[in-house]
Amino acid sequence: MDERTPYETSESGDEAEGRASTGTRAKLAQYALIGIFLILFTALLSYGRGVFLPITLALVIGTILAPITNFGSRYGIPHAGTAAFLVLGTIGLLSTGIVFLADPVRDWIGRAPEIGANLREKLVIFDAPIEAWNRLREALGAAPSQSKTIAFDFNSSLLQPALSSLTPAVGQLLIFFGTLFFFLGHRNTLKESIVRFGSVRESRLRAIKIWNAVEASLATYIATVTGINAAVGIIVATACYFIGMPSPWVWGALAFVLNFVPYIGPATMIVTLLGVGLVTFGSFYQALIAPLFFVGMSTVEGQFVTPTILGARLTLNPLFIFLSIACWAWLWGPFGALLAVPLLIIVIVIINQFATKDEVKLPG
């Protein structure tokens, strides 16, 4: 028989409600601290872009190249020697690309006024929709627009911002190559140092599994996508050659690079091919041949070829890919968009390793 008085029952209920309220406030305070940390961390990444971007890029590329250092160590080649070879190879590859692209880019910059006038002449068909849109805005109370047609400076509005965002400073290059060399040369030491942070055996084994899974997933993804993108670049260059576009190998190389960035890369390539077609050909419909061809090829590649080759293990959710690209492009520009998918793979691998319920066992 319950001998508590109604007052005592009410008091104990108030105490339970107070404890629940205290727990709720503690959770809200915890969530608030996490939110503040994420905001400050995002601000730090944005403010320190000049340092964090080359370091992150070097670490991602170093993780992808790690299997090469392991292969060299099997034949008695020290990691530092393999790292020096890979860094010098990267420098040589970048230098070769700059040499081959310098003349076409300089030619397009020199023809910027002519190209801008040509594009304005070809895009006159959009003057009527633009004028109708301006009239609708004015009817809704917006300020009258000064421009009734498409008008832009090709050099200042397109080429110069693109080249400035894609041309890192000397300091950033030094940070990138220095981080890449020391990461590849001393990767095992760094791995051992990270594993030692674990206080118990299980956490150390989990750290090893995460490290190995990240390396394997990134290497597999990048190697597969690089092969696919190389085929895309060759097909685009061949198609541009037969269509009659100038410098077809330049557009093939551009398609190869841009295809590493889902959605944004193919969209940029379509706009580029349309612009080059408008400048090159006299007919608007003839200028549509190359971009329409790329749309068809990109659709087949993105919907069938890449998912089939990568398989379910490395096929990522399109929404996560889009949000990752939007976030990193906002923080770090074009290079952030290039790093978005590799960083997303790293995050997903880490989450999967912590979410697994299987018992952690010793290798072998």
Series of H and E elements = HHHHHHHHHHHHHH
Q: What would you report as the Rg, rounded to the nearest angstrom?
A: 27 Å
How many distinct helices? 14
How many domains? Answer: 2
What report would you give on this structure?
The chain has 364 residues and is mostly helical. The chain has helices spanning 6-47, 49-74, 79-110, 112-122, 127-139, 154-166, 170-185, 187-196, 201-243, 248-258, 264-280, 284-287, 289-314, 318-355. It has two domains: 49-162 and 171-196, no CATH class; 202-364, no CATH class. It contains 14 helices and no strands. Helix 2 runs parallel beside helix 7 (170-185), helix 2 (49-74) crosses helix 14 (318-355) and helix 9 (201-243) packs antiparallel against helix 13. The chain starts with 5 loop residues before the first helix and ends in a 9-residue tail after the last helix. 19% of the residues are buried. The model has no long low-confidence stretch (mean pLDDT 80).
Per-chain topology:
Layout: H1 6-47, H2 49-74, H3 79-110, H4 112-122, H5 127-139, H6 154-166, H7 170-185, H8 187-196, H9 201-243, H10 248-258, H11 264-280, H12 284-287, H13 289-314, H14 318-355
Quick recap of the structure?
This protein is an all-alpha fold and 364 residues long. The chain has helices at 6-47, 49-74, 79-110, 112-122, 127-139, 154-166, 170-185, 187-196, 201-243, 248-258, 264-280, 284-287, 289-314, 318-355.
